UniProtKB/TrEMBL annotation:
It catalyses: D-fructose 6-phosphate + L-glutamine = D-glucosamine 6-phosphate + L-glutamate. The active site is at 361 (for fru-6p isomerization activity). The lineage of its organism: Bacteria, Pseudomonadati, Bacteroidota, Flavobacteriia, Flavobacteriales. The chain holds residues 252 to 617 of 617 of the full protein. The gene is glmS. This is Glutamine--fructose-6-phosphate aminotransferase [isomerizing]. Transmembrane segments: none annotated. It is an enzyme of class 2 (transferase). The keyword Cytoplasm applies. It is found in: Cytoplasm.
Length: 366
């Protein structure tokens, strides 16, 4: 059932090319240059008239929501707020009939997310669900939605659910940008082409597995990790840190790279590994100067870079390459080495990768 892999998590990491392809299949029609999603099409007026989109989710799904915030604002020019479902529902939020609420949940059963939906519906907002489990409570409770087609995710640490959530949310953002006219037809086509190429590029990124395992072996005994990224890759830094915490029990924090100097920089010394996402298109020069700041404090740098990069390679202790893509789609690639890094560290430490202590696959308690 693990298909020859040692763990479900590793199997699911490797399933991502297929999961992403399955998620855009039938929706991304490149030859016709259209995106077809019934749940969006049928409710286009609601989306186009929305004052804002509120995204609610928990954990990894919340990180996918943060990536979506960047895409929706960048491409579709719709204001977005991303909320932890648990905070949103308890703080007497301002919700109106002109709000669209997008709930993201792999299991579709997360209690706080479900409660946030019910609250939004009671105030007249339109609720759109992005779930993986068909027929789940959140899917049923939503007014409309789009499934991720990741297939069953057994490993408690979410991997393919995350990348397929980003895929669905990218499709929605692109569809809305086209409808709003905030994207040119040539840019739109370019995005479709790039999205279609992601599965192949994920395959390419997965080939760094053995190299990543060696890096994991070097750092497996440290007690703290820092993850830094900017823009589209800031949420990826959060997700990388969460993955490491969950399955290896090593303390890790994700930060926007520029926030480092407002506190976390105090932690940096020769014992601190810092994973920095430094792909070519995402504020590259700014990230390089953050890397220089880390280096002058003797932190150990693991750079996630675009293939062929030389500048970061010169500064970093290790680099892991991912193929080049659009900035907006880069999280689908930069996430891969971070998943593998935490996987290998956890395995080397003999941890129960698929069922980490204290965690459950679906959190149905509040
Ligand atoms: C992280 C993880 C959790 C879930 C969170 C939300 O690897 O699995 O943080 O992402 O519990 O779960 P869903 O998406 O099912 O609502």
């Amino acid at each position: 059932e693990k298909g020859g892999y040692d763990h479900f998590m590793l199997k699911e990491i490797h399933e991502q090319p297929k999961a992403i392809r399955d998620t855009y299949r039938g929706r991304l029609l490149r030859n016709e240059a259209i995106i077809k999603m019934a749940g969006v099409e049928d409710n286009m007026k609601k989306f186009l008239n929305a004052n804002r989109i509120i995204i609610v989710a928990c954990g990894t799904s919340w990180h996918a929501g943060l990536v979506a915030e960047y895409i929706f604002e960048d491409l579709a020019r719709i204001p977005v707020e991303v909320e932890y479902a648990s905070e949103f529902r308890y703080r007497n939020p301002v919700i109106t009939e002109n709000d669209v609420l997008i709930a993201i949940s792999q299991s579709g059963e997360t209690a706080d997310t479900l409660a946030a939906i019910k609250l939004a519906k009671s105030k007249g907002a339109f609720v759109f669900g992005v779930c993986n489990v068909v027929g789940s409570s959140i899917a049923r409770e939503s007014d409309a939605g789009a499934y991720t087609h990741a297939g069953p995710e057994i490993g408690v640490a979410s991997t393919k659910a995350f990348t397929t959530q980003i895929t669905v949310l990218s499709l929605i953002a692109l569809r809305l940008s086209r409808a709003k006219g905030t994207i040119s037809s040539s840019d739109f086509r370019h995005h479709l082409l790039e999205l279609e190429m992601i599965p192949k590029k994920v395959e390419q990124a997965l080939k760094s597995d053995a190299h990543i395992k060696k890096i994991a072996d070097i750092y497996k005994n440290v007690s703290n990790f820092l993850y830094l990224g900017r823009g589209y890759n800031f949420p990826v830094a959060l997700e990388g840190a969460l993955k490491l915490k969950e399955i290896s029990y090593i303390h890790a924090e994700g930060y926007p790279a520029a926030e480092m100097k407002h506190g976390p920089i105090a932690l940096i010394d020769e014992n601190m590994p810092i994973v920095v996402i430094a792909t070519k298109k995402g504020h590259y020069e700014k990230v390089v100067s953050n890397i220089q700041e880390i280096k002058s404090r003797k932190g150990k740098i693991i750079g996630i870079v675009t293939e062929g990069d030389i500048q970061v390679r010169d500064l970093a202790d290790h680099v892991i390459e991912v193929p080049e893509s659009l900035d907006s789609l880069s999280p689908l690639l930069t996430t891969i080495p971070l998943q593998l890094l935490s996987y290998h560290i956890a395995v080397l430490l003999n941890k129960n990768v698929d069922q980490p202590r204290n965690l459950a696959k679906s959190v149905t308690v509040e």
